[in-house]
Amino acid sequence: MTPWAVGTVGSHPLPRSGRLTLTPVAGNGVTGGGGRAVAEQQRQRCDLVLGGGGVRGVAHIGAMTALEEAGYDVVRAAGASAGAIAGAFAIAGVGPDTLRELFDELDFTRFALSDIVARLKEHRAANRLLRRFSQEGTDPSSWITEVLQGQGIETFGDLKVTDVEDGAPIEQRYRLVVRCLDILNRRVVRLPWDYGHYDLDPDAQNVARAVRASMSIPFVYDPVRIGNRDTGAQALLIDGGLTSGFPVGVLDRTDGQPPRWPTFGVRLLPRPPSTAELPESPLGLARMVIDALLDTSDQLAPDSPCDELRTVRVDLSDVGTLDLDADEEYDLFSDGYEAMHAFLEGFSLDEYRDRCRT
Fold it and tell me: Is 296 exposed, middle or buried (0-12, 13-18, 19+ CB in 10 A)?
């Protein structure tokens, strides 16, 4: 396991690796861990939309740390791929300090595609490759489940909005939504909103399994199968960051009233065009395809003046989506933290309410 580099960002020292004992944290959203920089009665609420970005999702933790220090609690979150993990943990009440330790414990360097490609080269037949992948590939399912259960979260019924009006649409009933791609039915799936397509009760569905589905990069993690055996409705889910991703306004209210609190979208900027040589092998081509998909498809690009006002841009142009080393982990966290800090310094809630009325 690779420890975090020694240093600090804001008031938060970067921890070294170690076994964690998770303690449930009271209150909404990103709370606990390292102490609050803003008194409880002065804290504000926000919604958070997080893009994907593969292993670069560590930057989300830095952004969420700056958000917490500025006095914001996350009420609802939407995310795909790495953004689904960060969003789920924020909603579950896992503090930023613990989040960094957890991401370090997962050790993203173990999931770098370069290591996977090296292992795949040991075999030639495609079916043998895939079997070996399924048997030996590192799967984060148990890790995600352990963290969420430690916070008292198991099903989406545990993440229902408590003050929603009777008869409100399903899009307003849950504090978390994650994006997946159903390759069996060829459509984008938003969980828990779309469980009804598969004759499933959203309240009874496992949150960790949905998050795991949202980060199922093809040939890196196995797809996640869901469905109802009695009716035959089923899906095979892969990484939701391979499609266009959530729009920043996915959590906006639709009744024409001004927003009660802001939504912030965290956009991990893509790398500039590559000057790399053309791949010389099928494995090299596969790597380039997956890397390009993750790098370009889920960019949360603003498409309105309101979205421009509420999008945090994190420049990670020097870090790939599938490879990561220990020094880059620290850089990613720092980049996310600094981008959110700078954004919040110039943010005006009054201007937001004026320009983002739906």
Answer: exposed
If the chain, 358 residues long, is cut into consecutive pieces of 10 residues, what is the mean pLDDT of each piece?
A: 35 35 36 50 90 77 92 94 89 80 59 45 43 48 87 96 85 94 92 97 97 81 88 88 76 83 88 61 66 58 81 79 62 91 95 84
* Domains, the chain: 8-355 (3.40.1090)
> Residue type at 34?
G
Which amino acid is present at 159?
L
DSSP conformation class of 11: T
Residue with tokens 């990613």: 332
Cβ neighbours of residue 275 closer than 8 Å, sequence gap 6 or more: none
Beta strands in 69-110 (DSSP E): 72-80
Predicted TM-score (pTM) of the model is 0.77
The SS3 call for residue 228 is coil
Closest CA to 94 of 13, 44, 21: 21
Grouping H, G, I as helix, E, B as strand and the rest as coil, residue 146 is helix
Amino acid identity at 16? R
Q: Which candidate, 253, 351, 332, 289, places its Cα nearest to that of 4? A: 332
Structure tokens at 94: 């896992």
The torsion of the CA quartet 80, 163, 160, 256, rounded to 10 degrees, works out to -30
Q: What Rg, from alpha-carbon coordinates, does the chain have? A: 20
Q: How far apart are CA 313 and CA 40, in angstroms?
A: 28
Judge whether 174 and 161 are in contact, CB under 8 Å: yes
Question: Contact, 89 vs 175, CB < 8 A?
Answer: no
